[in-house]
Specification:
The protein starts with a helix and ends with a helix. It is elongated, with a radius of gyration of 22 Å. It is an alpha/beta fold. The protein has two domains: about 130 residues, Rossmann fold, CATH 3.40.50.2300; about 150 residues, Response regulator (Rossmann fold, 3-Layer(aba) Sandwich), CATH 3.40.50. The relative contact order is 0.13. The protein is about 45% helix and about 15% strand.
């Protein structure tokens, strides 16, 4: 009798859920993309969702129109799907806020993203948690980070931190900008702008900041390993998991959320650099837990 009741209750729901189709459109295969897609697929399949994964250059406009939601992974996939103008809601992941802003505009509520950039308020909160004695941040903007740097400056001002700010167009302007913003000790907040922070400039930036007794807050685990005092970042798996939650919400009738940074994140520290700078730095796990608690406490 119980089995019959369950079949009556669940029977109509199972086909409806199976009928909802998810299309994941990928870019050039990288370890980060593979990790994000694997997590996204696993979590959606655990929920019984039907999904298909296709590379961006083998995905037609008709295919994006025949599904209930599209998830793009990486900038090439995002651009391809945005140009298709699919009526299905589209969630973009593993792209910067700058690259998202360059996509063709769509009707309100039909396109959103979990961008790679960490929320400015989160970055500033980490500075205050980790380095309460330093009340000044340094920012260097480039062509792709003007908006992010402006938001960081606004968040820092709201937190009553001093701000030293410079902007460059060409890489040969970087040394002068560093000297200007680090004239007094400050926390240099790195931004994911390839014109400023890239594999050719990172070592000189870290050495210059160290000589100025100014710690660096990086945007990837690699920065902390290379010599930044600490880094704030989200793993591809965390972003894939965040995306799975958004997809499930949309398929259950919810709206696409506003564009935002990742919900999940990690903090990594470099104790060797901390000792060299004479800084007493809490453990990475402690900082991560405190930062999460702060965000969960917000209304």
């Amino acid at each position: 009798m119980l089995l019959i009741v369950l079949l009556i209750v669940l029977g109509p729901l199972a086909p409806a859920q199976a009928a909802q189709r998810i299309l994941i459109v990928t870019s050039t295969e990288t370890p980060a993309q593979t990790e994000a897609v694997s997590t996204l697929q696993a979590e959606l399949e655990e929920r019984g969702r039907a999904l298909e994964t296709r590379p961006w250059d083998q995905t037609s406009a008709e295919q994006t129109r025949a599904v209930d939601i599209v998830v793009t992974v990486g900038t090439p996939a995002a651009r391809a799907v945005a140009n298709h103008a699919s009526p299905a809601p589209v969630l973009h992941i593993l792209l910067s806020a700058h690259n998202y802003a360059s996509l063709p505009a769509r009707a309100s509520g039909r396109q959103s993203a979990i961008v790679l950039d960490q929320p400015p308020a989160r970055l500033v909160a980490l500075v205050q948690l980790a380095l309460p004695a330093l009340e000044r941040i340094a920012l260097i903007g480039g062509p792709q980070s003007e908006d992010l740097v402006a938001q960081l400056a606004q968040a820092a001002a709201h937190a009553r931190l001093g701000i030293a700010q410079a902007s460059i167009v060409r890489e040969n302007e970087l040394f002068g900008a560093l000297q200007a913003v680090l004239a007094e000790p400050a926390v240099l907040v790195a931004t994911p702008d390839p014109a400023v922070f890239n594999r050719f400039t990172v070592q000189n930036i870290l050495l210059t900041a160290f000589r100025h007794r100014s710690p660096v807050l990086g945007f990837s685990a690699a920065y902390a390993k290379a010599g930044a005092l600490l880094s704030l970042y989200s793993t591809p798996a965390q972003i894939g998991s965040d995306a799975a939650r958004v997809v499930e919400s949309v398929l259950r009738g919810g709206a696409l959320p506003a564009v935002s940074g990742p919900h999940s994140f990690e903090v990594q520290t470099n104790p060797t650099v901390a000792r060299s700078l004479g800084i007493e730095l809490p453990a990475a796990e402690t900082l991560t837990a405190r930062l999460r608690s702060l965000e969960e406490a917000k209304p």
